[in-house]
Structures are given as C-alpha cells and as structure tokens.
Design goal:
five-stranded parallel β-sheet; alpha/beta; 12 helices; 3 domains; 299 residues; Rossmann fold; Arc Repressor Mutant, subunit A
Amino acid sequence: MNSNGHQPITVLIVDDSPDSLGMLNQALNSEGMTVLVALGGKQALKITERITPDIVLLDALMPEIDGFETCRQIVAKKPSLPIIFMTGLSKTEDIIRGLESGAVDYITKPINNQEAIARLKVHVHNARRQLSAKAVLDSADQSIIAIDKLGFIIWATNRAEQQLDQYEHEPQILFSHLQTALNKTWEKDPTATVQLDGFENSTISVTYLNQVGSQHLIRLSGHNHNLDLARLIEKLPVTQREAEVLLWLSKGKSNWDIATILGIKPRTINKHLEQIFKKLDVDNRTAAAGIALDAVSFV
C-alpha cells in the first residue's frame, strides 16, 4: 500500500529516449508508483510476457517496432491492459491510428506531468473496476463480453471465452458480426438478438445489455456442441458416450435418431439411458433432459 492507502500502481514506460522522460519518471515515483522502463517495442513485449503492469505509457515513434504495432501485440495478449500513447504527432489520423491499435488515450509531448498522472489514475481505476466486474460475472458463471465502439472485444468472462473458442483462428468473422450488430442492428433495436453464424454445431447468439462508459456489455446465449459435451462431463457423473446420448436427448431426439447420429444400435442407447437414469437418480427421459439443459444453460 502507498501512503494514501490505495493499491499501488505499476507503470511501464516505453520510449527509446527515456532521458527525456526523467521528470515524468520522478513525478510518478513521487506519487508512490512503481516505474518500469523499456527502451523499445521488443523489450516492452518481453516485459509484458513476464508481468502485467497496471498501465503502459507508450511512445508512438520508435525504431524496429513502432508504438502502433507494439500496442497491437500487447492488446492481443492482454486486452484489459490500458495503454496511453505519448506522441509529438498532432495529426488527427495519427491519433485515430493510435486509438484503433488499442490505446485508451493519448498525451502529447512535451508532457504535462500533472495531466499525465491524472489521466493515468483514471484509466487504472477504470481497468480495475472492469476486472472486478469480470470476477463477479465469472463467479456467477455468466457468459458476458465487453466490446468497444468499433466492435472489438475488450474483455470476456471465462464462460464467454470458452464459448468463443471456435473463432480463435478466424477472429475477423466474430468482429464482423459484432460490428454489424453494434452499428446497424442495435442502433435501431437495442433489444434485438443477433445470431453468430458461420460455424457448424453452434447456435450462439448475442444480446445487448447496456453501456458502461465507452464499453458495451453483450450477453452470449445458445450452445456449442463440443463445449456442451465438455460441460456435461464436468458437471455430471457421466462418461463421454453417456454425455453424447444425454445431449441429444436434451435436444428432443428419439432413441432411433440418437443411434443414427452416433452410429450405434438403438438397443445400445437403451443401455446407456439405464446408466444415465441411475447416475442422475431419475426415472424418465424428461427429468434427465432437464438436468442436462441446466448443466449447459447460459442463462
């Protein structure tokens, strides 16, 4: 704890000319903050792989890897880490470029220390509130994501990250869905539910919740076949095959349908159901299906 009784702040300053930031460094230290320094983008990336500072002050113009690319790479791995650009550039397109690369704010050089510290504290406070909210939603097993005004995901609960794993190799598809929903669908009807298409065995949809500051909170619902199987095995005392039978049972499939889907004999389905009923302590299909739906439910 610092002298003010607040949680201390760790700041990473990234600049190839740190001597010019001597006064800022001194000012941050006088506020009880811990200051780390990286002399370039590569060093900054190595530091953020090992530790997570509370905020990054990042110079825009640097050799090898400039600030824009450094920002993109940091945000890709740690989207909740706030980054403030330090720049002598004053053109609107340069400022927009910095914000689009993932920065939350920018300050111009020469730096006004008091202004920089004030902005820094605000962004750290907001980031900590976000992490606290995420922790609460995680504990409640909620599937929630926060996106910015462009449609990029800022943070996601653990449940949502699992649900969106299918987009890992094609994030542009997800971004396109969210951007379209935010800029077209939800502007006209905030209560609309939008389907996320483009993947097999998935019926994921998103619903707008509300706006908190510059973030838009979105709820995910629906089901992903592979994830549902994993959750059944995690939450219920069933085997892989029993989970498969139970999942299709919860979708209203008959024994014949399930046997055809799984490529096994119908009488084998009966044997699996006998074991499932026994393990779940139920005596009929409806009760078993209800337990399965509760286990995979996203609401």
